[in-house]
Design goal:
By secondary structure, the chain is α+β, with helices and mostly antiparallel strands. The protein is 44% helix and 19% strand. It has a domain of 119 residues.
Length: 509
């Protein structure tokens, strides 16, 4: 065993001694690269031509020695360049052939599709290459001319979508109509939404901007119109700043609305209207100095006169007094209609009054002297219990879309355009929302589209749905007058229809 190993080592030693000229050249070239890199490469033509066949068997075992093959044609160029160089650059060593064989064995042949894709990618011209455009074929030119002559046809589905484009735009705009509620200001948001529904009232304020914009005290009107201008904006932060400015403007004359606690929507609405109305004399003086005329929007659209007549039961002596209102508060009648509650308000009531004749009982009756363009009715949902605790009345009332009101100057027909509802079971907690007609549709449109404004959330609804769902929560009602009529058949017909509907609902319950 040891003898055979010894003979093998001797054999390898003799083979190493009898290396070919190529090994010698390789060793010399390796030494010259490590010691003197500026020396020219020696002549290897003899080495490339006289290869030793005995050295081929060890290549698979020990690897082929590194040999830089130099072609005879490039030998003179390499010698010239090497002589000119003072310091040679470090060249990367060439890997032996056995390394390339092992690498090729591990490679996976690309798929046919990938190979064709690579060929297409590499076949694209470079940026500096010019590609000749051969032009269109005759068939392509003919098809192009036919497309120009024939007008494009619109599919039926696209025509139907085009018809409803306006409705889609209105629906998208309705989503932006909301007002954010950062700190318990739902009472203010609901009042603002209902006032913005009164387009004639808003237009009257906007049309006199040249007058109230010159007075610093008219901050309330400026803030209100700023909110109107940003009603379609989707910038919640900007709307919060405008709402804060409006709240501060109201709090200047009504400090009870300065804090961040929940307030009563009816008290806030009354305060806003009264403040706008109080600016009337100052604005009228400013308009007169400008050669203009100022007309208060609140007085023109919301103010109405009521006459209170007192009559003594014994001597029939009495007195008459007129008052102006921006809204009317009605006692809640469980299961009754709004028209019935209004009639109960106008009925004669007993009043303790000491007359000159010595009688102590008189009768008092109220009546409308003038009718407003917008009638605001407040339903008394909150009252004091026998133990003097404030409580909410959740009894339902019947809401009708139409309302007939009589006055000393004649009757008027009204249509419901907005509501403010208090959602909650107690008077100390709850949430205010507003419902209003879509201004782009109109009251007489068959679509009957309304919007429910729940702070920043706006949903689409209908007037019939509002009258049905707000029976237990309706708090403030806004009725818009149609035309001035005097004992016309429309008023009689509306009253008859409302009475029949109320009797039918009462029979169901």
């Amino acid at each position: 065993m040891f003898l055979s190993i010894f003979i093998m080592f001797i054999f390898l030693y003799t083979v190493q001694k009898s290396t070919s000229v190529t090994d010698v050249v390789a060793d010399q070239s390796r030494q010259t690269r490590t010691s003197q890199r500026s020396v020219a490469v020696p002549d290897a033509s003899a080495a490339t031509g006289n290869k030793d066949e005995r050295s081929q068997w060890r290549f698979p075992l020990f690897g082929r020695p590194f040999i830089k093959e130099i072609h005879p044609e490039k030998e003179k160029q390499n010698v010239a360049t090497s002589d000119d160089k003072t310091t040679g650059s470090k060249q990367k060593a060439k890997k032996p052939r056995w390394w390339h064989r092992c690498k090729k064995r591990r490679q996976v042949a690309p798929a046919v599709e990938e190979q064709s894709l690579k060929e297409r990618c590499h076949s694209t011209p470079h940026q500096d290459e010019v590609v000749e455009f051969k032009g269109l074929t005759k068939e392509e030119e003919r098809l192009l001319e036919e497309d120009k002559k024939v007008p494009p046809t619109v599919p039926k589905k696209e025509e139907e979508d085009a018809v409803s484009t306006t409705n889609i735009v209105r629906h998208q705009q309705g989503k932006c109509h909301g007002l954010p509620n950062p700190a318990q200001i739902c009472y203010m948001n609901s009042c603002l939404q209902s006032l913005l529904t009164l387009e004639d009232f808003v237009r009257a304020i906007s049309g006199q901007e040249q007058v109230w914009s010159l007075i610093p005290e008219a901050t309330l009107m400026r803030s209100f119109m700023d909110i109107k201008g940003s009603h379609l904006s989707s910038d919640a932060r900007h709307k919060i700043n405008l709402l804060d400015a409006f709240k501060k403007a109201v709090s200047v004359w009504a400090p009870e609305f300065q804090d961040l606690h929940q307030k009563d929507a009816h008290e806030f609405l009354t305060s806003v209207l009264e403040q706008m109305r109080c600016l009337g004399p100052r604005l009228q003086g400013m308009a007169a100095s400008m050669g203009r005329v100022y007309s208060c929007p609140v007085e023109d659209h919301l103010v109405f006169k009521m006459q209170n007549t007192r009559t003594c039961k014994r001597c029939s002596a009495g007195s008459t007094r007129e008052e102006e209102f921006t809204n009317l508060s009605l006692d809640l009648v469980p299961g009754g209609t709004v028209e019935q509650m209004l009639q109960d308000y106008l009925m004669e009531t007993q009043l303790e009054y000491k007359c000159v004749c010595g009688a102590t009982t008189s009768g008092q009756r109220s009546s409308f002297v003038t009718l407003p363009r917008v009638l605001v009715l407040h339903l008394k949902r909150f009252r004091f219990s026998p133990s003097f605790q404030l409580e909410k009345v959740c009894d339902p009332v019947v809401l009708f879309r139409e309302l007939v009101v009589s006055s000393n100057q004649g009757g008027g027909c009204y249509s419901l355009v907005s509501t403010i509802s208090h959602i909650g079971l107690t008077a100390r907690s709850g949430h205010y929302i507003s419902d209003g007609t879509d201004l782009d549709v109109g009251m007489e449109d068959p679509t009957d589209r309304w919007f429910t404004y729940n702070d920043a959330e706006v949903t689409e609804t209908s007037g019939d749905s509002v009258c049905d769902q707000r029976q237990k929560n309706a708090y403030i009602l806004f009725y818009k007058r149609h035309v001035r009529v005097q004992h016309c058949h429309i008023c009689t017909e509306v009253t008859h229809i409302n009475e029949m509907m109320w009797q039918r609902q009462r029979h169901k319950h």
